Amino acid sequence: MSAHPTLSESAESYATYLLSLDSEEAPLEEIRGADLYVAWCCSRGCGAALEHFWTACVPTARRAALSVTKDEDLAEDVVQEVLKKLIVGTADKTGTLASYRGRSKLERWLRSVTVRAAISASRKNSQMGVSEDEDAALQVPAVDDDPELALLKESSGAMVETALRDSLRELDSETRLVLQQHLIDGLTIDQLASVYRIHRVTAARRIAKAREALLSATRHKLRRAVQLTGGHLDSLINFAQSRVKLSLRWFAATQNPE
Asked: Considering the entire predicted model, what is its pTM?
């Protein structure tokens, strides 16, 4: 516990949990105590533990999934499913992160779980028999009905991206984590409520507040940078909103370089 002093879960409860472990399965002297403590705190909805888990372990899972699938979209789907099973669980089963017993590094354990899931997903994907070219042919490119707006987006795209990234840097880590969990990792309101052990209304408000904080900061930066007001500024903000996911992925990549 001394390795993670910011985690506030009960020492007494954790001691009880340790004593409940099967000593033959995982002798206490061989357990990676710090990692086991993080996993246990995550299973109890501790925000600081979840933040540590997402920052320290999830990037490794994403790289592992991509190394197996060779497909960014499929890899992201794999990681999202793994995280949901580990952290959220299902209606009749709690998250399986509790199955971690500390016999290897938590990051390595998550990587192993993700690789198995990625292999399974790749096999299923290959059996579907739809080529990339066929899939692309089914997609119809969007047409912008407003030429003036299209020109504004084109000329200000880099500025919007910069404003978003700067605003992301300025957000507190908890707000960024909620956005990442919801927008990148695909956790629903109900799933976030389950993760943090809060009411779904509280979870919805937390997501809305995080979005508002990001877009409000972005609006302020754009207003100052391009001297726009009214409809044109609103259009740029709408454009910025469509780029939030990409900016979040960029932020995660810069914080956890390979």
From this structure: 0.54
Q: CA distances (Å), 197 to each of 44, 82, 200, in order? A: 8, 19, 9
Rounded Cα distance between 113 and 86, Å, is 10
What gap in Å lies between CA 5 and CA 37, rounded to an integer?
11
- The structural domain count of the chain equals 2
Residues 116 and 38 in one domain: yes
CA atoms of 168 and 158, how far apart (whole Å) = 15
Q: Is the pLDDT of residue 144 over 50?
A: no
Alpha-carbon torsion 109, 69, 182, 212, what sign?
positive
Rg of the Cα atoms in the chain:
21
User: What burial letters (b/e) apply to 24-44, b meaning 16+ CB within 10 Å?
Assistant: eebeeeebbbbbbbbbbbbbb
Beta bridge partners of 90: 93
Q: What is the pLDDT of residue 11?
A: 64
pLDDT tens-digit profile of 206-232?
A: 999 998 899 889 888 877 776 555 555
Q: Is residue 133 part of a domain?
A: no
Give the contacts of 7 (CB within 8 A, at least 6 positions apart): 1, 37, 38, 41, 46, 48, 49, 52
